[in-house]
Design brief:
This protein is of the alpha+beta class. It contains 16 helices and 10 strands. Among the domains are: 45 residues; 246 residues. Helix 8 links the parallel strand 8 and strand 9.
């Protein structure tokens, strides 16, 4: 069979391969000849073999400095070939790898000793980040590619990211972040016995408006603690963060003091969603709708003075029935009100840790099918892969903030030279 690859003209006069037409031709040829597209003997398998072997031959010609049949100027020439099976996106492919007499040829398209192309590893890592276990992935790849893939191989592929993860965790950070959001998620990890352990998550919004996960840390059992946060925040400072304008966090006792000790000029903003959620713990479910409606008038107030007035009315209504709930708001008031000094665009960024909550939601999807993790490293590995995964045509937890220029102008008026915008 001969498949002709045609070109189409672009508006600028350049030509690009008509991949749609090529795909139609391949499917038609496979149907006519009664063969599969993928798997052993499949049409795409054969095409992949041809492309890889052609690329290897071109690489060897560049390495030798002459094409096949031409005289060598260095004395190094082609010296036969060897057979090799590699796993690709279309299954296992048996290819012929050319050799040179000097043994100095190190191909890039199919590296020496490599039995898998990058696309295969990328597929495994993507499935792992989406929450599939090593057994699930092995079964899935067997169904798709028609070849057996061991769970051990899947584990080795995912383990290959550990060095990247360690470098990522210790990478230098920007000297200043306008906004940092911090929160924790609880995972079940075996350490002698299975226990609930908090994983601390810090996300920063840079001066350029980019959201970035600054770090992940597995803490000891016993729940989230301000003492542990002090250690994490100190690490962020040691990695280069000299100043933060606003830190948004939950209402954990002692956390504002830990933040102030790390970045003395930072404004601490307690997450309003956490405050409302915690308020409902003190109240009967029958009163939830009235309480949330009353609190909404407080946190949507136009000014601090208006918020104080509305909270006074709220406290008069509920203090007799739920004194602990009202007292919690009074204790948290100094860390609740800072966002009220900003326009709506900035309020949306700092009144809640939803930026991290969205990431935590992905974390929960990724860990849901596992029950518990055998080691701390296994848990951190999947969280790291979840952070770096990008899902096309969907909102991702990291990336650029919409309408950032307007937000930055307001921040610059408030925080001035601290942002180092020059």
């Amino acid at each position: 069979m001969t498949t002709k690859i045609t070109d189409v003209q672009q508006g600028d006069g350049s030509a690009t391969t008509d991949l749609s037409a090529l795909a139609d031709q391949l499917v038609a040829a496979a149907r006519t000849q009664g063969i599969e597209l993928t798997g052993p003997g499949g049409l795409l398998t054969g095409l992949t073999k041809q492309v890889l072997e052609t690329a290897l031959d071109v690489e060897l010609s560049e390495h030798l400095g002459h094409d096949r049949g031409e005289r060598s100027g260095t004395g190094n020439v082609r010296n036969g070939s060897s057979q090799k099976t590699v796993r690709t996106d279309v299954g296992e492919v048996r290819i012929t790898v050319p050799r040179d007499r000097a043994g100095t040829f190190t191909p890039a398209v199919v590296p020496k000793h490599s039995r898998r192309l990058a696309g295969f590893d990328d597929a495994v890592l993507s499935l792992y980040a989406k929450g599939m276990t090593t057994g699930d992935i092995a079964n899935h790849l067997a169904d798709v590619y028609g070849t057996e893939v061991s769970r051990d191989l899947v584990s080795r592929v995912t383990d290959a990211v550990i060095n990247d993860m360690q470098e990522w965790q210790s990478r230098p950070l920007d000297p200043v972040y306008p906004i940092v959001l911090i929160d924790a998620i609880v995972l079940k990890i075996r350490d002698g016995q299975v226990s609930n352990r908090p994983v601390y998550v810090a996300m920063g919004i840079s001066v350029d408006g980019e959201r970035d996960v600054l770090g992940l840390w597995a803490g000891p059992t016993g729940g989230e603690g301000a003492k542990q946060w002090m250690s994490m925040l100190t690490e962020l400072r040691n990695r280069g963060i000299a100043d933060v304008c606003i830190v948004c966090c939950d209402g954990l006792k002692g956390l504002p003091d830990a933040i102030a000790a790390t970045w003395p000029l930072a404004t601490v903003q307690t997450c309003v969603v956490h405050l409302v959620r915690n308020s409902l713990r003190y109240a009967s479910k029958a009163d939830w709708s009235k309480i949330t409606a009353g609190l909404k008038t407080v946190y949507t107030a136009a000014t601090v003075a208006a918020a104080e007035q509305r909270f006074g009315e709220f406290a008069d209504t509920w203090r007799g029935k739920y004194p602990a709930m009202v007292a919690m708001w009074e204790r948290s008031w100094a860390e609740f009100v800072p966002f009220l000094d900003f326009p709506l665009e900035i309020r949306k960024l700092i009144y809640t840790t939803n930026g991290i909550e969205s990431l935590n939601s992905r974390f929960r999807q990724a860990v849901r099918r596992r029950g518990h993790f055998p080691t701390e490293q296994a848990a951190m590995k999947i969280l790291y892969l979840t952070v770096r995964e990008r899902r096309p045509n969907r909102s991702n937890p990291t990336g650029r903030i919409n309408a950032w220029k307007s937000i930055l102008n307001t921040l610059a008026i408030t925080y001035g030279d601290r942002l180092n915008i020059n």
